[in-house]
Amino acid sequence: MNRENIYFSHDANAMSDPKCMLLIEQLGMEGYGMFWGLVEMLRQQPEYKMPLVLLPAIAGRFKVSESKIKTVVSAYGLFTIENEEFFFSKSLRDRMELMQQKKVRRQMAGIKSGEVRRNKALAQRNEHCSNIVQANLEQCSNNTEQRKEKKRKETEFLFDSSLRSESQINSSSPLTPHGGTDAASGGGGGDILNHYDLTPPADGISRNFDALSRRLKNLKVSESDFKSICRLTNFGEIGNKVWALLEPVELRKDEIKDRGRYIISLLLKKE
After folding, report:
1. In 3D, which of 243, 240, 261 has the Cα closest to residue 166?
2. Domain ranges (residues) in the chain
3. What's the maximum distance between 2 C-alpha atoms anywhere in the chain?
4. Were 192 and a residue from 56, 82, 180, 271 both cysteine, which residue would form a disulfide, CB within 3.0 to 4.6 Å?
5. Which residues contact residue 149 at a Cβ distance below 8 angstroms, ignoring those fewer than 6 apart?
6. What is the average per-residue pLDDT within 88-112?
7. How much is the mean pLDDT over the chain?
8. What is the pLDDT of residue 188?
């Protein structure tokens, strides 16, 4: 049983109260005992009151006369009669009300304390989660930077490799067909392809000479290189490898100084 359900405060000097002194004077300690017996019974009742009709039964329980128990209830001002039906102790009610207020204050303090603890735990948990998220974000950021750096180095490596390959091609690949002579060689033939008409021959071969001319013009290819490329590609024959070569050259046109000679070297390079 919960102690709070049966407890009530009891002043140590209650016997010195004038009402109790008179009760003891007239009824002795027997009367004083009846008084506290009634208070204990009231403590366990709803609203701390009991019907007057129960007094005979209470007298029988206390082993005292009915007249004595009624005298204790009504003659000394220790109890209050309510509507000639119930009796209660105002002192007990006041004490119980005070005890209930203390109980409520303790409960509210406990609730507030629990809320503070929960908020503190929640703040700590949020901080922990925030730290984890921040650490993950930093790790992701580091990984992203590492991937970018790796990609940059790979790009630089491929670019350097491409430049080295280009240098090797330009230095090793002949710019004129076997048996031909370049204008600079003094062979008398001028440019090796100058004797070809720039009008595509009507031989039934599928060509796109206009597109080839336009793209070479955009690359600012010199006239002599233009003629050479036309000859080497059969004037832009469909399926010629020139079409696969033009796009990467166009993408890197700012990097390649002499684009016409570069295209010629690639066309002359053996597969």
Report:
1. 261
2. 3-88, 105-172, 176-268
3. 159
4. 180
5. none
6. 90
7. 82
8. 33
pLDDT at 260 over 80: yes
Summarised one tens digit per residue, pLDDT across range 158-184 is 545 544 544 444 444 333 333 333 333
Q: Nearest CA to 200 among 177, 227, 224, 219?
A: 227
pLDDT tens-place string over residues 216-242 = 999 999 999 999 999 999 999 999 999
Is the pLDDT reported for residue 150 higher than 90? no
